[in-house]
Design brief:
The protein is mainly alpha-helical and about 400 residues long. The protein has one domain. The protein is built from 19 helices and no strands. Helix 2 (about 20-40) runs parallel beside helix 18 (about 330-355) and helix 18 runs antiparallel to helix 19 (about 360-400). The longest helix is centred in the C-terminal third of the chain and has 43 residues, at about 360-400. It is globular, with a radius of gyration of 22 Å.
């Protein structure tokens, strides 16, 4: 299992991965939609019958397959699985440890530049009194929204320490609710590099992937590392197993089954008001799994099934490799870091300023119509002015300080 084959590896070396940018872009959009729904139509997320604004069908969405379209946690798991795929690509394509060293040396700087900027931006907005989310939360009766930015933010040395260490390494989220994922992304990245450096050329390493999942389940390590493990395994299979050739005759059936699995697993409810034992999802939550672990496992496997389906389908690769989706993928990290700041300031202020004569749903629609172009423009500007220079800085530092002589 997972034996390295020079012939199959070279056959896949020219395989385009542009469709992964499209997947990443869609995942970022799902996170944004999830947070907007959590604010304006929370029953779609929580299944709280007292928070219904559109109709009882909101509860059906929250507790059924359609919640994949609003699944913020699923989208985060998709990000982590994608990282396992993307960060292992250069190694599986070349088989060279130098590829791992280069990525490992650059990874912290590549992440901390945009993350640090988002910390400074949040601090500046806080000092300027731009946050209006508490007022909006009070008006909507949304205590979840009102609870953010209640801790004092750092200044001086504390601010620098938070931006450079506590947020990227500890997942400190007082500056931005989405920051909780960043330590997992950073630690998971180095987990990928370490796994490949130690075991990347082992024969039958498929057993190691399974063993690692078991270890992560029973250890105190973050189980989200399982998503990175699954991502490595997916890319390993893409390069070294001729499974795509083997299923060519039944490819449509296989893709259909993978997509079905992605929906069923990815829609495992994260809603607090749903009793899992009364739904078909109880089959995914045996007695030996806690609810949170069952949800993590289902969403990680659902994300992996979706990526596998896209990998196996030329049609899906073409669709997700469309230029506009690739553009969305390129700004996805900036979009992810900025969107909650924009919602808590611009969107909240706009909704609060609307005349009372406007109906609730019309007010939400107007607020969202104004938010989308502003958010996309700011994400693009951050990508061009912060994210890309951060990538170049990481490459320059690696070449100047870390690259081996003669490399």
């Amino acid at each position: 299992m997972f034996r390295v084959s020079a012939s199959t590896s070279s056959a896949h070396s020219s395989h385009t991965l542009h469709y992964l940018d499209g997947i990443r872009g869609l995942a970022a959009v799902v996170v944004v939609v999830h947070h907007l729904a959590s604010i304006f139509y929370p029953a779609l997320i929580t299944a709280d019958p007292h928070a219904i604004r559109l109709g009882s069908w909101e509860l059906l969405v929250a507790g059924g397959p359609l919640n994949v379209l609003l699944g913020g946690h699923l989208a985060v798991c998709l990000f982590f699985v994608l990282s396992g795929v993307v960060l292992s690509e250069q190694y599986f394509r070349t088989g060279q440890l130098a590829a791992i060293r280069s990525q490992a040396a650059r990874r912290y700087v590549r992440l901390v530049v945009p993350v640090g900027f988002s910390v400074l931006l949040a601090t500046g907005l806080h000092w300027a009194g731009a946050f209006r989310h508490v007022e909006l939360g009070q008006q909507l009766g949304n205590t979840w929204l009102s609870g953010f930015w209640q801790e004092p933010l750092g200044t001086g040395w504390e601010l620098a320490l938070d931006a450079l260490v506590r947020v990227p390494l500890n997942g400190e989220a007082k500056y931005n609710p989405v920051h909780w994922t960043l330590n997992t992304e950073l630690v998971g990245s180095y987990f990928v590099f370490a796994f490949l450096a130690l075991f990347g050329d082992f024969r039958r390493r498929g057993w190691l992937y399974g063993f690692m999942l078991v270890v992560l389940h029973f250890s105190n390590l973050s189980f989200y590392l399982a998503a990175f493990t699954v991502g490595i395994a997916l890319n390993d299979a893409r390069h070294h197993i001729t499974w795509l050739v083997a299923v060519r005759r039944y490819r449509r059936v296989v893709v259909g089954l993978l997509l079905l699995a992605a929906v069923l697993l990815g829609s495992f409810p994260q809603a607090g008001f749903i009793e899992i034992e009364t739904t078909p999802y109880r089959l995914l939550e045996p007695d030996w799994l806690t609810h949170d672990r069952a949800m993590q496992l289902a969403h990680i496997l659902g994300a992996a099934a979706f990526i596998a389906a896209v990998t196996a389908s030329g049609t899906l690769r073409r669709i997700l490799g469309a230029r506009w989706l690739r553009w969305l993928g390129s700004i996805s990290f900036s979009l992810y870091l900025l969107h909650f700041l924009v919602i808590a300031t611009f969107t909240s202020a706009l909704f609060l300023a609307l005349p009372s004569q406007i109906s609730y749903h019309a007010g939400v629609a107007l607020s969202l119509l104004a938010t989308v172009p502003v958010l996309l423009l700011l994400a693009w500007l951050m990508y061009r002015l912060i994210d890309l220079p951060g990538i170049r800085l990481a490459r320059w530092l690696y070449q100047r300080l870390f690259q081996r002589l003669g490399a």
